[in-house]
Structure formats: C-alpha cells, structure tokens
Design brief:
20 helices, Rossmann fold, Serine Threonine Protein Phosphatase 5, Tetratricopeptide repeat
Length: 393
C-alpha cells in the first residue's frame, strides 16, 4: 500500500481527528489509512450524537463521517457542525456509497470540505484530509472577513455581520457573502432589502438555499404565491433535503393548503426517518395545534440530541395546558434523559408535579433545579411555597 506523501502540515499530525461510522470495519479501514500516514491521534465513534458530544468538549482538527447512519445521518451531522458558532470552523469530510449529483450538491451547500465515494484509496483519503485541513486557515484578508462574518451570523450578531458583509461586497461580489447578508437581513426583518439584493443574484448563483430563503421572506411579507413558488423550487433544486421539504410543508399549512402539506410530509415519512426529521415534523404539527400527530412523531424518536429538547418541552407545555399532566411528566422526564443538566427542565417538571399534588416529587425536581442553578428564582419561590406537611397521594 502506497502512502500519500505531502510535506504540508507534517508538524500537526498529532492533532485529534474523529472518524464516525456505525460500521466498525469502515472505521477500522479509515483509521488504518490515517495511521499509515502518521496521523496518530484518532478517535473512532459509532454515532453522530456521540461525535457531537466529543466536539463540544475537545479540540478536534477534522471530522470524517459516513453519510448513511441511523438516528442522525452524516449530512444532518454536517449541518449541526456548520450551523454551530463554536464548531463551524472544523473541516468535515463526507463518505458516501454513491456520487450522485444530488448528494454532492447537498453536501457542498451545507459546507462540506471533502467528499469521498466507497471504495476509495488511501491516496484519495489522504489527499482529501490534507486539502480539508489546509482550508481551515483563510488565505487572504477577504477570506478572513468571510470567516469572521459567518461566525457573527451563527452567533446571532446579525447587525455586526451585516456591516462586515457590506464591507466585503464593496471589494468583491461574493455569492456566499450575498447569501449570508440576505440571511442577516431576514433575521433583522429588513425583508425588502433582502429581496432586492437577492433579485440581483438570480441565475447561475441560485441554489436551493437561495430559493428557500427567498420563499421564507416572501411568506413573511404576506406574498404567499411567490413564497410557495420559491420554496417549491428550493425542493426541486435539493430533493434530498428534509429541511427544505419541512419549510415547504409549513408554508402550505400557513396558506391553508393542508392536503399539500400532508403530501410533502408523506414524502419525508416514506423514507427511514431520523430523529431530527421526526422532531421537525412534530414541531410543524405543534404549530398547527395538533398534539396527537406531534406526539406520534416524537414517540418514534430513538436517541435525540440535546438541540431537539425545546420541541419536546413545547409539547409537554401544550399537554400541561390541556390538563394531560401524566403525559406531560413523561415527556419532561424524556427531556431530562436527553439533557439532565437543564435547571429549566427540572423546574418545569417540579411545576407540573405541584399541579397534581405530588409534593415529594416536586421538591426533588425543584431541588435539582437549584442545585444546577442556585440563581433560579422561580424554582426557589415555588419550592418555598410547597407546604411541608402535604403528603403525596
């Protein structure tokens, strides 16, 4: 077996890399190739959820992930990384069983740094690794500013990102900067400016992200016909993205096109649904006030990530409001199994227990909330108001 020899970055081969695949033999092959080229600090993980946990706690130089994995796919994993202000700088190489145009375009849209098709050679892997690692460092002032702008946008600092975006566009008419600028304009509700800027970039630069954003802006402006057309085009441009389809289904619900919304959801549900897709569909139904369908999709989740907890929490709140307390308590407990260190979730569970006179359980939940956050005034006040002599029924 021939090594891929490249003098670039020889001094940094002790940086930690992670390889993510649900199949152990694939992980072992990739690890062998990396070690054969003197990359010694490699962590092997079988799920994207485990990998996200590692990324949140360690300095990782590169991620190599398979596309086809249960519960969270590689493309969903990529989206999670590239949409996190603390992680987006980490290069990601995607491994797939096929090189379809749809897959490649989808991965490129979401910011992938390399794409390999099985079976691949050691030379192919190492070339992708070196190129991906080299891309971490901006090559010039414009690239540095684009990197900085993306971090601002992901952190929610939209005004600062806008200032930097306009500064960059004075120098270079960069498609990625135009899209990020329009995204920031959307978030600060300057919809007309965003539409005007996007109209100037029609044609070759139009992507499913562009069409999706344009559709959402038109929906906000109440121009539903234009919004639906743009969102439908977004799905055509990227038919693999569940996110695009969910946005379209939501727009159909907004405009009263219930059958069309259900049809789009069915096209997603006909595939092997991941936890993220299940949660996003449930969120759609929660917005429609349909607790039964929302609950049905949430119950199908297997191992959801902490980022999905707000949807479970909203479902529990909705159940609590219609006096379905035991079901709400079950959902809160599931939330805590996903994110046990949330004082807010412990408080919500304690509040629910007080409503059904489970005082001992309420005290325990509220005490946990205060242990995690002694400044939680709501938990403190509620705990003080539970009579000491009340018994659990």
């Amino acid at each position: 077996m021939l090594n891929y020899k490249n003098p670039i970055r020889q001094t940094k081969k002790t940086e930690e890399l992670i390889v993510v695949d649900d199949l152990a033999p694939v992980r072992e092959i990739v690890q062998f190739m990396l070690r054969n080229n003197r990359y010694t600090n490699i962590r092997s993980l079988e799920t994207a959820k485990l990998a996200l946990s590692v990324l949140g706690s360690r300095r990782i130089a590169l991620v190599i992930t398979d596309w086809n994995m249960p519960n969270m796919t590689g493309i969903e994993f990529l989206i999670q990384i590239k949409s996190d202000p603390k992680l987006f700088h980490i290069p990601v190489i995607m491994i797939s069983d096929e090189r379809s145009n749809d897959k490649v375009l989808y991965a490129v849209e979401e910011g992938v740094d390399g794409f390999l098709v099985k079976p691949f050679s050691e030379h192919d892997l190492m070339k992708s690794v070196e190129l991906a690692l080299a891309r971490r460092d901006p090559k010039n002032e414009i690239e540095r500013k684009i990197f900085e702008m993306k971090g601002m946008k992901l952190a929610g600092n939209y005004r600062e990102a806008l200032e930097l975006g306009f500064e960059i566009l004075k120098v270079r008419n960069h498609p990625r900067v135009i899209l990020m600028t329009c995204e920031c304009l959307y978030h600060v509700e300057e919809y007309d400016k965003a539409i005007a800027m996007m109209a100037d970039t029609e044609g070759d630069n139009r992507s499913s992200q562009h069409a999706n954003l344009q559709g959402k802006i038109y929906m906000k402006l109440g121009q539903h016909a234009q919004g639906l057309r743009a969102l439908e085009q977004s799905v055509k441009l990227n038919p693999l993205s569940h996110g695009r389809k969910i946005d379209l289904a939501g727009a159909y619900f907004t405009t009263g096109k219930i059958k069309e919304a259900e049809r789009v959801i069915t096209t997603i549900a006909d595939r092997d649904l991941t936890d993220l897709s299940l949660v996003n569909i449930a969120d759609l139904y929660l917005e429609q006030g349909d607790l039964e369908k929302a609950g049905a999709y949430l119950k199908r989740t297997v191992n959801p990530i902490p980022e999905t907890v707000p949807v479970f929490n909203n479902y529990a709140v909705a159940l609590r409001r219609v006096n379905r307390f035991e079901e709400a308590a079950e959902i809160y407990r599931k939330c805590l199994s996903i994110n046990p260190d949330s004082d807010v979730l412990h408080y919500n569970l304690g509040l629910l227990y007080t409503k059904i006179d489970k005082c001992q359980e309420a005290r325990e939940a509220l005490s946990n909330a205060l242990r995690l956050n002694p400044e939680n005034q709501y938990a403190k006040a509620l705990l003080q108001n539970i009579p000491a002599d009340r018994k659990t029924p």
